[in-house]
Amino acid sequence: MEKIKVIARNSKLSLLQVEEVFQHYKNIAYDLQDIESWGDQHKEVSLLDGEAPADIFTRELDNALIEGRADISIHSAKDLAYPLPSGIEVIALLPPFDQTDSLVSNNRLTLEQLPAGAIVGTSSPLRKQELLSLRPDLVVEGIRGTIEERIAQVEHGKYDAAIVATCALKRLGLEHKIAQILPFATHPLQGYIAITAAEGRHDLKQLFIGKDVLHRQGKVCLVGFGPGNPDLLTIAGERELKRADVIYYDDLTNKAFLSHYKAEKVYVGKRSGKHSHEQNDINAQLLQSARKGNYTIRLKGGDPSIFAHTNEEVEYLQRNLVKVNIIPGITAASAMAASANIGLTHRGISSSVAFVSGHNKDILTPNADTLVYYMGMSNLKPIASKLIAEGRPAKTPMLLLSNVSLANEQCFKTTIGEMAASPKKDFPTPLIALVGNVAQFHQEPKGRVLVTGTDAKPYLHLGTIVHTPLIEISSANNQQELANEIEQLKRYNYLLFTSRYAVHYFFTKLISMGFDNRELNGLKIISIGSTTSNELKEIGIKADLEATDNTSEGVVELFQKLKAETGKTGSVLLPRSNIALPIIPEGLGNLGYQVKCVSAYENHFPANPQKVDLSTIDTIVFSSPSCIDGFLKLYGALPKGKNIVCRGSTTQNHLRQKQANNK
Question: Which residues are tagged catalytic?
Answer without folding.
Answer: 250, 270, 375
